[in-house]
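Researcher: I'm preparing a figure for a lab meeting and need a structural model of a single chain. I don't have an experimental structure, so a prediction will have to do for now. The sequence is pasted below. Please return the structure as tokens so I can convert it later.
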Amino acid sequence: MKILNDQTHWYDRIWAAFIFFTRLPFWRLHEPPRDCYKTVVEHWPLTGWLTGGAMAATLYFGSMVMPYPVVVIAAITIRLLITGALHEDGLADFLDGFGGGTDRQRVLDIMKDSHIGTYGVLGLILYMLLLGSTLFSMPAKLAALTILAADPYSKMVASQLIIIMPYARTEETAKNKTVYRRIDWMAGVSLAIQGLLPMAAFLWYTGLPWEWIIFLPCLVMYCLYLMIWRRLRGYTGDCCGAACLLVELTVYLVVCVLVTHQ
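Model: Understood. Here is the structure written out token by token.
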């Protein structure tokens, strides 16, 4: 099945996604054509199966041999090592840009700056505290299952920015010199399967109210969309990374609240 050109296949696109969104040496095994990196978001939730699986396994099996607070920190650390803190860097840049920028160009310039500011530091601290606290408040098995569902789901939801908005920069001024291609309906169906399948299994197994777990993260995503559109009239990679983490955190918060009040 040929996708972009005569040298590009569907497995090249998946391989490119794992190379782009993780720091694992997949590139040593196979280096896909450069054009494949324009389609990595179409398989973003699939990489969440890997990062979520590693984080969940660390949390669940580690809880059998170590104190739970230590295991929660270890699980978060494992994901940071796998992704190279790619999305956390996006969240920090997003907070710095939207917190300190006074106009569109200033927001874009701040987000592209490699230095982290006050908004980014405080935002990452609060994010990590909330992430660790919500996971710690759940039993190990439920926390692991929630991670398996929330990681791919949040990436699927965040990818909607690319569907509904243009890119805010040009390819020449992009951080990674790559502009993602617009997602067509076939890629959209694939995204939905990648993100919703783990979430559907989680909701079926736990029996938790699906309305809150699905609706509130989407509401957070919609609010982020409105903010990004009003300020930038387009998305950036930092916006996608920030949206992914904030949507995922919302899932954890909702599950935490539901379990507490059961």
